[in-house]
TrEMBL record:
Protein name (Swiss-Prot/TrEMBL): ISXO2-like transposase domain-containing protein
A Pfam family it matches: DDE_Tnp_IS1595
InterPro entries attached to this UniProt entry: IS1016-like_transposase, Tnp_ISXO2-like
Superkingdom assignment: Eukaryota
Domain ISXO2-like transposase residues, every copy: 134-278
Length: 286
C-alpha cells in the first residue's frame, strides 16, 4: 500500500488510487479517515456500503437502516464538498508547489476552493510547527539572523509593509525555526532565541548589538561581520552564516516573484515554509 507522502504528482494519485474507493482504502490505512464507526442512534457498530462512486457508513437493523453517515465524518475532510480523490489531488499538488490555477484546472474546482484549501493547509502547518522541539542542542552549531520582507497591507492593495523575521538553522540536523518579530531589540529577540534554540548550542550570528549577550544563554557565541566579511576565523573555527543566508533566499523567493503574501497571512506563510523545510518536502532544497 502506498503512502500519501510517496505521491508527488497527479499521475501518482491516478495510478496508485484509480478510483474514489481506492482513495478511501488508502486514507483509512493512513489513518486520515476513520476505519470504524458507531451509530449515533443505537451505539452499535456501523458497516461500510457502496454509495454511488463512493462509500458510506451505515447501521442496519433488520431490513431497514437505523442511521448512516459520511465516510468523511470526524476527519480532516469532514467539511469539504469535494470527493476524497479531489481532496487528495489538492494536497499532493500543494505539496508539489503547483499553482492554484493548475490545481483548480486539474481538480475541476473553483480557484476560490483551492484558495480555501491552501489556507486550511497552512493552518495545519501552524499546528504542526507548534509541536516542533527546539533546534540545536548536543553542541550543534545554530546560525541565526534577521531579515525583512515586504508584504501588502490590505490583500491586493499597493501599500507595502515591512515585516521583520528572525530565524535559525541547525547546521547538523538542517532543522529551522522562523518567526515574525515586531522589532529587533534584544528584549524581543533574546527570549525568542531561547524559546527556539536549545541552550546546549553554539550560536553563529552577525554583530548586531542585540546579540551581544548571547554567550550567557548558549554554550558559546561567535560572530561574523555581514557584507564586508563573509567568514571569520576565530582560532581554528571558521565562522560563517551561509546556512541562514540560503534559508532567507528560499523564504524570499515567492515575494520576489511578485506573488507575495498579504500581511495578514504572513504568519501562516512562515509556518508552511518551516514545515516544508523541516519535513524536506521542498525538492529544491535536496
Ligand atoms: Zn443504529
Amino acid at each position: 500500500m502506498t503512502s500519501i507522502l510517496d505521491m508527488k504528482s497527479v499521475t501518482d494519485v491516478i495510478t496508485q488510487c484509480p478510483d474514489e474507493r481506492s482513495v478511501i482504502r488508502m486514507m483509512m490505512n493512513e489513518g486520515l479517515i476513520r476505519n470504524s464507526a458507531n451509530c449515533e442512534k443505537c451505539g452499535g457498530p456501523m458497516t461500510l456500503r457502496n454509495r454511488k462512486d463512493s462509500m458510506e457508513w451505515r447501521c442496519r437493523i433488520g431490513k431497514g437502516d437505523c442511521s448512516s453517515k459520511s465516510i468523511k465524518t470526524g476527519s480532516f475532510f469532514s467539511s469539504t464538498r469535494l470527493s476524497l480523490t479531489q481532496a487528495l489531488k489538492i494536497v499532493v499538488m500543494w505539496n508539489g508547489k503547483y499553482s492554484s490555477l493548475q490545481i483548480a484546472r486539474e481538480v475541476k474546482t473553483s480557484p476560490q476552493t483551492v484558495c480555501d484549501w491552501r489556507n486550511f493547509l497552512r493552518e495545519l502547518c501552524s499546528e504542526i510547527e507548534s509541536t516542533y522541539p527546539k533546534i540545536g542542542g548536543n553542541g550543534h552549531i545554530v546560525e541565526i539572523d534577521e531579515t525583512n520582507v515586504h508584504t501588502r497591507k490590505y490583500g491586493r492593495g499597493k501599500e507595502k509593509s515591512d515585516d521583520w523575521i528572525l530565524g535559525g538553522v541547525d547546521r547538523e540536523s538542517g532543522k529551522v525555526f522562523v518567526c515574525q518579530v515586531p522589532n529587533r531589540t534584544a528584549l524581543t529577540l533574546v527570549p525568542l532565541l531561547q524559546a527556539n534554540i536549545d541552550r546546549d548550542s553554539i550560536v553563529y550570528s552577525d554583530e548586531w548589538a542585540s546579540y551581544s549577550q548571547l554567550k550567557k544563554y548558549f554554550t558559546s557565541h561567535f560572530t561574523v561581520k555581514h557584507k564586508t566579511q563573509f567568514v571569520n576565523l576565530v582560532g581554528t573555527r571558521l565562522v560563517c552564516t551561509n546556512g541562514i543566508e540560503g534559508l532567507w533566499s528560499r523564504l524570499k523567493k515567492p515575494f520576489k516573484q511578485g506573488n507575495g503574501t498579504s500581511e495578514a497571512l504572513i504568519g501562516s506563510y512562515l509556518s508552511e515554509f518551516v514545515v516544508r523545510e523541516n519535513e524536506r518536502m521542498d525538492s529544491s532544497k535536496r
